[in-house]
Amino acid sequence: MSEASPAKAYALHLGVIALLFVLSFLLPEYYHGLLARIMVLAVFAMGYNMLFGYVGLLSLGHAMFFAAGLYGAGLAVIQLGWSVPAAFLCGIACGAVVALVIGLLALRTTGVAFMIVTMMFAQVFYLLILYFASWTGGDQGMVVPQPARVLVFGATSLELTNPTVRYMTALVLFSIVLLVTLAIVRSRYGRVLVAIRENEERTKMLGYDTFSNKLAAVVVSGSICAASGAAYALLFGYVGSSFASVQYSILPLLWVLLGGAATTLGPLIGTLFMYYVIDITSGYTSAYLLIVGIALILLVLFFPKGILGSIRQRWLGWLP
Amino acid sequence: MADKNGFFDLSKTGLTSKTGLTRRTALKGLAAGAGLAVAPGFVRYSQAQSSAPIKIGFQSHRTGIGAAYGRWYEKTTAAAVKAINAAGGINGRQVEVIIEDDGTDPGRGAEVVGKFATQHKTDIVFGTLFSHVVIGSAPAAGENKMPYFVVSEGHHVASTKLNRYVFQPGITDVKSQIQSMAPWIAANAGKKVTQIFPDFAFGYDHRDYLPPALKAQGAEVIAQIAIPPTESSFTKYFPQIPAETEVIYHVMVGPAVLTFVKELGEFYGSNRPQLFGFIDSLEATDINSPGLEFLDGSHFWEGSPRYAQTDDSEAQKAYRAAVGIDDNGAAVGDPKDVSTAAHMFGCWETLYVVKKAMEDAGYKGPQDRAKLVEATEALTEFAEGPEHPQGPKTFNGKIHQCFGIQNISKIEGGKLKVVHKTKIEDGLYEAEGDYTTQAL
To answer: What number is the ipTM of this complex?
Structure first.
């Protein structure tokens, strides 16, 4: 893999952000709303990619980080009456704390054991949500009241239920996380993470504290996923336990695998692809998941490194 | 399915009436026409024409945990729409149903409501059953100002915690159902009740609403046993049932219910307390399935009876024939395809409420959605008849919830026989809020 110049890499990413900005004015109403949701969930996938793609740790429990953000922000508004920015930060903080605790425990394991441990912790988290139903709404979930979903800047207020405000808010979050991710993977720290993925023992022998680096990656990954969850609660107005179920741990894995693990833009491509395949095929048959499955098999056969991963391998080696 | 009128008829635009039509002006006209056709407002404009069909977006549980319900909700909806259209439609316009699968998932549910509002441009969204999907979709309905008629039986609508665009006018909510069961249980089954329920929201409705309802009747709940949703064997919970229990009130749901009943039967043998359950546990399941013999002689709540009754009204008979269920509540021609009869009548009745409200509002198109909301809120009662075959109902416009009679049925000889019908008044309760104070 050849290295892109910083200018080239940042130009590409800024170009994608600009394209998403322009699309806001071109897309039909339905796809406009759908893309806002996809951008928020692509942030979830980017958080997952940080750990899976760059550190090589396959977690099956990332739904708990997303849900930590979702409930951290949602409950702050519903139960405590906090403002949107405070609730959003609360969501991220919840995700960071959960990630720190889970990381300290789960990183004692590797490989398949890491997958199982993260899945078990996520299941515990899911059951806790059900157990504390009087606070969380249990399996039914809760609505974040529409009047509370307002961003106030002095005398100006922006309603997050407004499609344009929602799209632009999602774009801002997506852009920040995309650029932060790019900066991380191009930094010395990012190279250490890749080194751990490629050969942890050798990295240790070179003098790096791999546990601390991996723990930091878990916290960063969990915080990004929590930011996505918090944004989802505030932008779309619902918090529910289904977002903490194992399905939402599998989904970011699929999105990242489809788009290309260890590519900065792969999570967006993967999320976009999956959403559109489901949206289009479900209009024709109730067996749409079968079609999704066939599409996934074909992708694995012809794009084993995911869409962007394969493009990088075959044609554009400089893609970050 | 979706109406996809992609063509643009020049004859209706007036473009062809111009004399001296040049190639350039024709191309300009075509381009302008194509632009109009894809513009968001075009569909809305065309839909407002009196001849265009009323579009109803049906949010269906085609896949996921609610699929059995979804399939029968679709059948009932299709039968109701056929009957409405045969009788002239709504305001002289035919009704078209557009179906989208929500996967019984709240996230997808919200997307589907958005899709109905912004892509299909339906007049209303209708038909959702599972509570978490309703609650997850409600914000999208409110934000899109899309009247959202659910057939869920959950208390979430009547709790007034959703928004002004969400209605449940075709099926009584679970709080009212439970409350109306209490007098019969206390008078006929026993006064010391042990509850067994799943340890999630559906079970909590029963946990929270039954004790006060029984207390008001001089009975009491002496134990509440919550069973985790992940449990697949129940024997270890049965020793928690107090020996003095006179009635076991059970509302287990999901695939484990057969195991639950079998193990309860093995635990008690022939000497058991009275059993009272909600048929939700066994909707779309043959009551004569192996392992369910233990339920013989027990009682169930039913919204609408699964089995044809000797005193069925003509409206009930006509409804059953139209939907295509036989005397045993299974699909005509397929005795193994058992319906969700206790709930699906709500789809039929909700569509007739929508019809009535649209006619009252003089509804012409999506620009009249606010009028439709107000017209629905103004409704107060629905008389029993072909449009409401389950029975008469009252409607509280402040909480967007209807209240109807409930059936208590006993399993005798492998069939459910209605032994008691409650009164509407049995299920009425104090309103917890008022949607009409919210802005439209």
So the answer is: 0.85
pLDDT tens digits for A150-202? 998 888 889 999 999 999 999 999 999 999 999 999 999 999 999 999 999 99
Cβ–Cβ contact B45 with A under 8 A: no
CA nearest neighbour of A183 among A264, A71, A67, A91? A264
Residues of chain B with CATH 3.40.50.2300: 54-172+344-403, 175-302+409-418
Residue A3 binned pLDDT confidence (cut-offs 50, 70, 90): low
The DSSP line for A40-94 is: HHHHHHHHHHHHHHHH----S-THHHHHHHHHHHHHHHHTT---HHHHHHHHHHH
Give the whole-angstrom CA distance, residue B162 versus residue B157.
6
Residues A22-29: contacts with CB within 8 Å, 24+ apart? A24/A164, A24/A167, A24/A168, A24/A171, A28/B38, A28/B40, A28/B118, A28/B119, A29/A163, A29/B40, A29/B118, A29/B119
Least confident of B106-115, B137-146, B199-208: B199-208
Interface test with B, best of A30, A119, A125 (most B CBs within 10 A): A30
Q: Does B159 touch chain A (CB under 8 A)?
A: no
CB contact under 8 A, A139 and B201: yes
CA-to-CA distance for B34 and B7, rounded, in angstroms? 9
Rounded to an integer, the average pLDDT of B341-345 is: 96
Q: Quick check: B254 contacting A, CB < 8 Å?
A: no
User: Which residue in A79, A146, A238, A279 has the most chain B C-beta atoms within 10 A of its own C-beta, making it the best mutation to test that interface?
Assistant: A238
* Segments making up each domain of chain A, as ranges: 6-245
Determine phi and psi for A290, rounding to 5 degrees.
Answer: -65, -45
* Residue B46 pLDDT greater than 80, yes or no: no
pTM: predicted TM-score of the whole model, two decimal places: 0.86
Q: How far apart are CA B9 and CA B37, in angstroms?
A: 10
Q: Report percent pLDDT > 90 for chain A.
A: 75
Q: Share the mean pLDDT of chain A.
A: 92
Q: Give the whole-angstrom CA distance, residue B130 versus residue B116.
A: 18
CATH ID of B54-172+344-403, from 3.40.50.2300, 3.50.50.60, 3.40.50.300, 3.40.190.10: 3.40.50.2300
Judged by CB atoms closer than 8 Å, whether chains meet at B110 and A238 is answered as yes
Which CATH superfamily includes the segment(s) B175-302+409-418? Response regulator (3.40.50.2300)
Residue A141 sits at the chain B interface (C-beta within 8 Å): yes
Instruction: Tell me the per-residue pLDDT of B58-83, one tens digit each, with 9 for 90 and over.
Output: 999 998 888 889 999 999 999 999 99
Q: For the segment A43-86, what is each residue's pLDDT rounded down to a tens digit?
A: 999 999 999 999 999 999 999 999 999 999 999 999 999 999 99
Query: B40 and chain A: CB distance < 8 Å anywhere?
Result: yes
Q: What's the rounded Cα separation, in Å, for the pair A137 and A67?
A: 13
Contacts of A131 in chain B (CB under 8 A): 199
